[in-house]
Design goal:
- There is one protein chain.
- This protein is of the alpha+beta class.
- The chain is about 45% helix and about 15% strand.
- It has 14 helices and ten strands.
- Strands 1-2-5-4-3-8 form a six-stranded mixed sheet. A two-stranded antiparallel ribbon has the order 6-7. Strands 9-10 form a two-stranded antiparallel ribbon.
- α6 packs antiparallel against α7 and α7 packs across α9.
- It is globular, with a radius of gyration of 20 Å.
């Protein structure tokens, strides 16, 4: 577990103790076997991937939380080979949402094949692979997603039932060697989301403000001053659906706001490498076109994954 400089609580509540572990990431035996089988199939097929989700957060922060699935990130060019390898290993493959998400299921357990952001802003690229680090999961060698890309990805998850602020500030607290230049570059024109988390980190951990370099704070604040001084001509425009399509549906459908999400998703689905995934014959099932914005049960009782 990473060492955090400064004072920490000396006594943990029972609930806090449930969320922390100082040993290996614990997975129930049956579930572990499913994940081992999936990881070994991908490794044997030579498919490049990285482990993200709760397992990556544990690797970087030491925080353990039980999860129901295994998040694997792939470049789009590797998705068809990954699905084929998993199907050959006995998994049922499903193309859940053609521009970013597939699944491989074995009984009640499943592996998410994630190759982009649900809002259409970006696909998983070589940077995720290049900056990953080695790890072990289910007794299998894997690569762990880099913390900078994990932060970038989580900036866009802001649902009513799922908000990844705590993951972001924990990563900033626990990872001593964050590449802030790469993170700022990754975020690009969406820098206000990073600034909001920089301010949140300073609020949550006032004694650890120096974890964020001075130049990052100053650059983001200077951009904010310039943004506030600029007159905005398009008053009926919202970026809300980029962080929560569900919560901002009313803005688009009833209040008349225009948003970039639909165009971004449409453009992503028309790209050749995404079309190749959608047209491949490796999918046993295909998901229906429906919103997948909340984390938790919907009205029909099914589980919906945040589409970011």
């Amino acid at each position: 577990m990473p060492v955090v400089k400064g004072r920490r609580p000396r006594r943990l509540t029972p609930e806090e103790r449930k969320s922390l572990t100082h040993g290996d990431f614990w997975i129930p035996d049956v579930e572990r076997e499913v994940y081992r089988r999936a990881l070994e199939a991908l490794n044997a097929a030579g498919v490049p991937y990285i482990v993200a989700g709760a397992y990556a957060i544990y690797e970087h922060t030491g925080i353990y939380r039980k999860t129901k699935d295994l998040d694997l990130f792939f470049q789009p060019s590797a998705v068809v080979a990954a699905a084929r390898a998993l199907r050959d290993a006995g998994f049922v493959t499903r193309l859940e949402d053609e521009h970013w998400l597939g699944k491989a299921t074995s009984g009640e357990y499943f592996v998410d094949l994630i190759y982009g952001m649900g809002n259409g802003i970006a696909s998983i690229d070589e940077g995720w692979i290049e900056h990953s680090r080695p790890g072990i999961l289910a007794a299998t060698p894997v690569r762990i997603a880099p913390p900078e890309e994990l932060i970038w990805h989580r900036l866009f998850i802001s649902e009513r039932h799922r908000h990844d602020m705590s993951d972001i500030v924990h990563l900033i607290l626990c990872v001593e060697s964050l590449d802030w230049e790469r993170l700022v570059s990754r975020v690009g024109e969406n820098w206000p989301l990073l600034l909001s988390q920089v301010l949140m980190f300073s609020y949550v951990y006032p004694g650890h403000k120096n974890n964020i370099p001075t130049w990052v704070r100053e650059q983001l604040l200077e951009r904010a001053r310039a943004e506030f001084a600029r007159e905005e001509e398009d008053v009926d425009f919202t970026r809300g659906p980029l962080i929560s399509r569900f919560s901002f549906t009313i803005d688009v459908r009833e209040w008349g706001f225009a948003d970039p999400r639909s165009e971004l998703v449409r453009d992503m689905r028309n790209r050749p490498h995404i079309r190749a995934i959608a047209e491949a014959d490796v999918w046993d099932e295909r998901g229906e076109e429906r919103p997948r914005e909340e984390s938790g049960p919907d009205a029909a009782g099914s589980t919906i994954r945040p589409a970011v």
